[in-house]
Write a structure and sequence with these properties.
single chain, alpha+beta, seven-stranded mixed β-sheet, four-stranded antiparallel β-sheet
Amino acid sequence: IMRTSSGLGLRSEASNRFEKKLDPHLTIKAIKRFDELLSKITAIKTYFGIYDNYKRQERTRKIYLRPDKIKSILGESIKTETICKILTGLELKAIPFAGDTGPEENQAIEVTVPSIRFEDLEREIDLIEEIARIYGFENLKPSPPQIMLHGGRYSFAQKTLRKIRQNLCNAGFDEVINYSFISNEWISKTKLNSYCSYSNSVCILNPINEEFAYLRTSPMPLMIKNVQNNLNHDVKDIKIFEITKVYAYGQNSRVVSERNVLGVMLSGKAVKKSCHSQERIFDIYDAKAVIEMLAEQFYGNFACIDLQPGDFGFFHPSVSAEIIINSKPTGFMGKIHPFVLDGLDIKQDIFYTEIDLDAFIANIDRKIVFSPIPQFPSIDIDIALVMDREVKHFDIINEIKKSGTALLKSVRLFDIYEGKQIDEGKKSMAYSLTFSDEQRTLKDTEVDIIVKRIIENLSRKFGVFLRK
């Protein structure tokens, strides 16, 4: 009644009365009391009866009260006689339950709840509350709860989130915390709806104001706003990240999904000019370095990171990519589109990386194994490979790992060259390969055989050949 009255905006005497769930049988009592007072005041005895057109409803219930339950809740044993006396004083009918053949002190009590208390006395615990109120809380002796307490622990996902946060802080990033709400204005300014996965924003039915009209589908817009606010305060070199939840409707569904995501944003100078170093501006490779750092930390040295082109309206079309780690889509990265920055009057480039932490954590399958310090020396081999410009580093390094057997411990790209000494349309990529065996010293001949097989496989699949 209260909800309907509020929804209609209609308050009446009837709604005020019946929303309190008053006993409908009180009507008869009120009429009889009125008849009694009328007869007393006028000295005229009325003989007419009462016509009641109200449907008959059973408004009594029986609740069985256990003394053991009372003791477990209140921490003290109360005599059955005292319990019955308290309940009888509250206009409840309380008698020992005849069907209980247990000891008298533990015998259940059958309590009949009348119509006047029908709405608020529904369960055994309601009766125990009434007994405690009348018995007196000051008469109950305090006692510690008889339960086993267990210390809380972080789940694997929680531990991983804490490690990610700590790693980014150690790398010099500042953490930002924004609201989970966003305005339609900022969604439009950052072209967030141009990406299909972010077009299903959840609208708030009763927002506080227009700034909180939607739930965020990505941390990117408000992180751009953080950069804008810092630039307005003359802070131009920015390295920030945010770990938060985002919300969106599922595909062909009105069910709201919730994900944990990491947003990383870079802008300004990566290195300031000094007597020891030259000035350097943040670029897309700094954004990629964040991904590599986290992948190496949680997936190990052999994490396979692939960057595939993607269609993102808020990124520069030539400087953006979808992130795939170990063949699983994990996020995306890129340079914020100049049109977006112009609309916000931001004069310097911004690079953004977003990682789906739920997918990132679910794909972690790295067991930490402690190994003794190697007793046998390793062999390092450097190879410079010439290939077509379209061949990707991801494909090359995966093939090297596949062909390198268990003796190959690490692969590292240390140089890329395009110039006069290389044919047009070609590029040279130099890799450092480390081989070792924990049981013996490797021979140069067996390493040469492995390297030869690697080059043959690369040549057959990608047309790669050694640079001379």
